[in-house]
User: What shape does this take?
Amino acid sequence: MAVAFSNYSLEIENAMQLFYHTLSEKERRRYVAVEAVKLGYGGQSYLASVVGCNRDTVASGIAELATLPDEASENRIRRPGGGRKKATVSEPDLVDNFF
Assistant: This one.
C-alpha cells in the first residue's frame, strides 16, 4: 500500500528506524502507536512503512495505549529481589563485630 504523505524528513525516519530496533516488542508497538496517534489520519500506515512493521502492529499498540493507566504493576524493570544483597544479610555477624 502506498503512503499518501511523508511527515518526517529522511534523517528523522532513519533515526526512528534505529531507535525502533533497540526496543523490546512491547515497546516497539507502543512507540509506533504514539507516533501514529500524533500524526492522525494515515499515521498508522505511514509509521508501519517507516519502521517496517505491520499496520496491525501499530493498531495493537494504539489499543494498548488505552490500557496504560491500569498497568501500574508493570513499572518495574528488574525482577523483585534482584541486585546486591545487604551486607547484613550476607554477613549476619557484621553488626555485632562493628558495634
Notes: The chain is about 55% helix and 0% strand. The mean pLDDT is 82. Helices lie at 10-20, 25-39, 43-51, 55-65, 87-90, 94-98.
